[in-house]
């Protein structure tokens, strides 16, 4: 997968920490830097492996913090493993390629109203939803026999 870097992630993270009165620690920046260097999605374990000097619990805590702040989103692969990737902030879904693993953001979700209506028939009050779309990306379709 091509390596993409996300330098804006670091700047926004630092700004956001300052705004919410949280400390900008060296460890926090180390975790954010390791994430910004990665292209595509990754597991928390991969970040642990990349940062042997940082405790595992610290890595997990900071990934959770980044996800809560909207800088990372969770990507559920078809095999059930949970990955993270640098996020567009805000609600969106992913188009996950089952051949190369690419997870593209699918912006503009308009199924919440439909779900509200359907779930309302069962007297259920919807608070959210999570949807991943699996298939083949354009490149993998052109490579398919
Ligand atoms: Zn995403
Ligand atoms: Zn693909
Ligand atoms: Zn949605």
What does this structure look like?
This protein is of the alpha+beta class and 145 residues long. The protein folds into two domains: 89 residues, Arc Repressor Mutant, subunit A, CATH 1.10.10; 55 residues, Ferric-uptake regulator, C-terminal dimerisarion domain (Dna Ligase, domain 1, 2-Layer Sandwich). Helices cover 41% and strands 16% of the residues. The protein contains six helices and five strands. The model has no long low-confidence stretch (mean pLDDT 89). Bound molecules: zinc ion (3 copies).
Supply database-style keywords.
145 residues, alpha+beta, Arc Repressor Mutant, subunit A, Dna Ligase, domain 1, 2 domains, three-stranded mixed beta sheet, two-stranded antiparallel sheet, 6 helices, 41% helix, globular, binds zinc ion
Structural class: alpha+beta
The main sheet comes to: 3 strands, mixed
Question: What's the shape?
Answer: globular
CATH topology group of the largest domain: Arc Repressor Mutant, subunit A
Low-confidence stretches: none
Distinct ligands, ions and cofactors found in the model: zinc ion
Strand content: 15-25%
| Strand arrangement in the largest pleated sheet | 4-3-5
Number of domains: 2
